[in-house]
Design goal:
mainly alpha; about 0% strand
Length: about 475
């Protein structure tokens, strides 16, 4: 039995939304994509491999290398901006430039999925390529202490460009893979992580040799080469609707479900502080006197160890449940922030924190969509993900600028305030996600109800005794 046009359109919406809109969220799509029901609903042939399909994977990996890879590189830009290009600007305003990129990636990424359903990648990938490369050329021309130039070029323009690249590059994998979708998504995810490792090192090596302007231009040409390959290799396979539908972009009705409401609140708290170590680890290392030849590689180390935590948790979550993996990972990150980063004063402890935080924090972005999918009706999955990513977008936008405001002065007390703030957010987010798990577990709800009942029964005689004494 073949699919109707409506069913095929719904399938494309679901595949795109499962993919997520951040580097790690794609892995989550893989963990929920393969099910017996889907196999029954999709009897038509899916390549699941072959030269053409893996050529698309190559193009998608390079697109993520250039988009999410550059987002993961912003910590290196933050360090240079504060020290050299924008010394008169506050740390908070400089970090806003990087947080704008993340905001656009999540917020506009929710909407670009609908454009992908209508027109595929033939418009957005070339347009995103032009905007990204053009914006970097404009960054290379920015003048010293002209913050508005960097804000418009590196924050707004580049953020729009990567939003046009990321989501379509991930969504197109659903056209070519079903049973091997996890492998395809894992390979594509490696592109973004590789960008976060290679690009900071490239930038740090080039700036002393050729200056900031030409260093950024060279990075721009590298991205141009990658994205030209993406334009030539990424293509759709399934029929396209030819019209844009915004009806299923978001669904605020999901907040009536306590599990969804708690998960959204937990995501807001976790993502409020999630990117703070990525933006400030290099600045902190310089403050602590870490040798420059080590400090400039900390961001690359953090991104390198982030690779397995963006791929493996999805596979484990298939067997034990997303929150069973998510909550311990978030708890470990809380311990690392308050127990390792806060007291770290030497090179070894700072490097250890960077490696371990990168290793465990990837679960935040990879398992959030997995859990949302597990508690959402299939026909509303895309809209529910759209709504929670709106929340994540706002948290990502304000998180690092808030940290910058706390670090108004680079000294011991202000860094302590920043790290404690980040750690408390992580602890609060972990607790709220645990409450979401309790709300979704009938066993836990029963135990909690019995515990409350026993507590009430135990306190009743004392209350009665007091009333008799009165």
């Amino acid at each position: 039995m073949s699919l109707t046009a409506a069913d095929r359109d719904e399938e494309k919406h679901t595949l795109e939304d499962k993919a997520g809109t951040e580097t790690g969220t794609i892995t989550a799509g893989s963990s929920i994509a393969d099910s017996p029901q889907e196999d029954q609903q999709e009897p038509e042939h899916v390549p699941d491999g072959g030269r053409e399909a893996y050529t698309v994977v190559l193009g998608a990996s390079l697109a993520l290398f250039a988009s999410a890879g550059m987002v993961n590189t912003y910590g290196a830009f933050q360090d240079y901006y504060e020290a050299t290009l924008l010394p008169s600007s506050s740390s908070s305003s400089i970090s806003l430039i990087g947080s704008l990129q993340i905001f656009f990636l999540y917020f506009i990424g929710t909407l670009t999925g609908r454009v992908f359903d209508a027109y595929g990648t033939k418009i957005m990938i070339p347009l995103g390529t032009f905007i990204c490369v053009f914006s970097l050329m404009m960054v290379s021309l920015c003048q010293k202490d002209q913050a508005y130039q960097v804000f418009l070029s590196h924050g707004v323009l580049f953020g729009l460009g990567i939003a046009l690249l990321f989501n379509p590059a991930v969504a197109v994998l659903g056209h070519w893979f079903r049973k091997r979708r996890a492998l395809a998504i894992g390979l594509t995810t490696g592109g973004s992580a590789s960008g976060g490792v290679i690009l900071p090192i490239l930038l740090e090596r080039l700036i002393p040799a050729v200056g900031f302007g030409w260093a950024v231009r060279i990075v721009g040409f590298v991205l141009l080469g990658c994205l030209i390959v993406s334009c030539l290799t990424i293509c759709t396979r399934l029929p396209l609707s030819g019209h844009v539908s915004w009806r299923t972009a978001i669904d605020f009705g999901g907040f009536k479900d306590p599990r969804y409401a708690l998960a959204s609140l937990g995501a807001f708290l976790l993502f409020y502080g999630f990117f703070i170590p990525y933006f400030y680890i290099q600045i902190y290392a310089n403050f602590r006197g870490v040798p420059p030849h080590i400090a400039k590689y900390l961001l690359a180390i953090m991104n390198a160890t982030n690779v397995p935590s963006r791929i493996l948790p999805g596979y484990v979550a298939d067997k034990v449940g997303p929150l069973t993996v998510f909550i311990p990972a978030a708890a470990i990150c809380s311990v690392l922030l308050l127990g390792l980063w806060l007291p770290s004063h030497n090179t070894a402890s700072i490097v250890a924190f960077a490696a371990l935080y990168g290793l465990f924090s990837g679960a935040f972005v990879s398992l959030l969509p997995t859990y949302i999918a597990s508690i959402s009706p299939r026909e509303k999955l895309g809209a529910r993900l759209g709504s929670v990513y709106m929340v994540v977008a706002v948290a990502s936008l304000v998180g690092t600028p808030t940290a910058g405001a706390l670090l108004s002065k680079t000294d011991e007390a202000h860094f302590r305030n920043l790290i404690v703030f980040c750690g408390v957010l992580s602890v609060a987010g972990t607790v709220v996600m645990a409450l979401a798990g309790v709300a979704g577990s009938s066993v836990m709800r029963g135990r909690l109800s019995r515990w409350c009942g026993n507590l009430r029964d135990a306190s009743a005689p004392e209350v009665l005794k007091k009333s008799e004494n009165v």
